[in-house]
Amino acid sequence: MSELRAALEAFEGCPLKKTAKNLVFADGNPEADLMFVGEAPGRDEDEQGLPFVGRSGQWLDRFLEHLGRDRRSVYIVNTLPWRPPDNREPALAEASVCLPFLKRHIALVKPKVVVALGATATKNLFETGEGITRLRGKWQTLEVEGYSCPAMATFHPAALLRVPLNKRYVWRDLLSVMEKLEGL
After folding, report:
1. pTM of this prediction exceeds 0.70
2. Residue 38's CATH number
3. Domain that residue 26 falls in
4. pLDDT tens digits for range 138-167
5. Among 98, 110, 115, 117, which Cα is nearest to 24's?
6. How many domains does the chain have?
7. Residue 136 DSSP SS3
8. I need a labelling partner for 23 at 20 to 30 A (CA). Which of 44, 47, 98, 142 fits?
């Protein structure tokens, strides 16, 4: 993991690095069976250098708690390790240039299940143009560097701040994830 982090710290191919305060590498247990992939760091994440520490991270923590988990029992990364200015949606080119690092991260961790949180993570991880609403809750097989595992997309916790009714869908999706993990 340290080699991947060093490679990202040395990488100059993403312009977001120049405007971000910190590299937001990962949080949690790199030996976890469950990996969450978010979109890009926000202000709080950029300040602290950790993913999902702001308001949306509080939602993720609540869901984990209700599942009998916490950050020490999962692994959390983002599609992009640097914050886009003004928390704008990452550009396709920015996400594309960082995708090999994300794939390498997954190949190193080898989680049993991956959950893509939000549209940007879903589109990039599954390399699709389909939207999150159409793909959420559906199992797919994620293949990365010769490693494959089941993966599912669900709404990003930040989306729950805007549309609280979607919590029920995320909850169903996460219950399905837990069932899948129990069966593996």
Report:
1. yes
2. 3.40.470.10
3. 2-183
4. 999 999 999 999 999 999 998 988 999 999
5. 98
6. 1
7. coil
8. 142
